[in-house]
Structures are given as C-alpha cells and as structure tokens.
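Quick start: read one record
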Amino acid sequence: MKVLIVDDDAHIREVIAFTLEQAGLRVLEAADGRRALELFEREQPDLVVLDIVMPELDGTEVCRALRRRSSVPIVFLSSRDDELDRILGLELGGDDYVTKPFSPRELLARIRAVARRARADPAEDRPSERRVLRHGRLTLDLDQYKAFWGEHEVVLTVTELGVVRTLLEQPGKVFSRDELMDGAYPSSTVVADRTIDSHVRRVRAKFRAAGGDPVETVHGAGYKLGSC
C-alpha cells in the first residue's frame, strides 16, 4: 500500500514514515498542500494522512480538492482536539481523525483499519461471486467500489460506502447510530454520534444530487434504508 503523508513538520513526517515503512508500506511525503496535490496526481496513493494546519493550502482545502476527483481514504492529523474540527474534517470527506500528540502505532492501526474498510467485505469467503447489492434504483458494486442511483454513479468515500452497505444489507431494519457505526467502522475506533450523522448527511447530499435519497431518518431511533 502506498501512503501519502502531508505535514509541514519534517520530524512528524519522519516518525510516521519510519513506522509505516517498518510495517511494509510505501511512503510519499509532502510538506504543504500544493505539493501534496502534485504528488497525488502523479503517484495515485492508496491512502492519504493529512495534517490540517499547513502553509500554501491547509488540510481542509486539500481534502476538498481531493474529493472533487477521488474517493481515496483520508486520515486527518491535527493538533486541534476540538469536536467541531473533527466534524468539519469528516464532513469534508475524511475517513478518520487522529489528534497530536499521537502514538505512531495507533496511527498505523487507524490506517490499516481504514484500508481494510476500503477493500474488505463480509462476502470475502465467496470470491467467485460478483458482489453486487441492489434495492430499487440503488446499486452497490463492492468489487469495483462503486455506487449508483439508477444509471448515475455516486462517488462515495470508504466510510460513506460502509454506511450505505450496512443499510442495504438489511432493508427495513432501523439501525441505531451505534449499529451503523459498527457497520461503517468495523475494527476501528469508537466515534461520536455526531460523526456518523455527518457521514449520513454527506451520503444523502450526494445521492440527492443524483436525483434520489436512499436514507430515511427514524426520529429517536436512528436510520434505515429509504424508498429506492
């Protein structure tokens, strides 16, 4: 797996790079947002570790630019341990958030968990079968990691796809936020209710832009698959 580390602190990049390389990952480094976008276009990394406060372009601007062209998994890295910052990062399309100071081993575990969500599926024991889930106009192609509303492709991040897949696997079931988090964040850390709400809002906005909305809010209970 190829990981792009974006941070203006050379020491932090060195620590992260050492940890990831020891784990067998290939590492690319960028000290600012503009360089990060240049490297991303040329190297097409599998995952991005992205600091928020940086010169040139900050992490939120880089995330916006990446999300216009890619659903690559993004793990935010920041010294600001504020819930609003976390929500902002996740609303922009981040898949996880690690606060400085951090343990390099914890960051590695988060990276691996996000990467597993991007490529793993409960149907892995049936590799000969094409993994496609359908309900009405909603289709998820889990082999190609694509979502569709009718004929329109809807580009989702790994976590957003996990949200939709969890709902689609049990149509009619009302999922509590905890249950939906378990589906979207398997083997990952516990996240706040507002975090899963942010992902759901992004999912609904993307599908509405394609002419539909696969998620229904059940007030006081959680979410379920809507009319498709």
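The radius of gyration is 17 Å.
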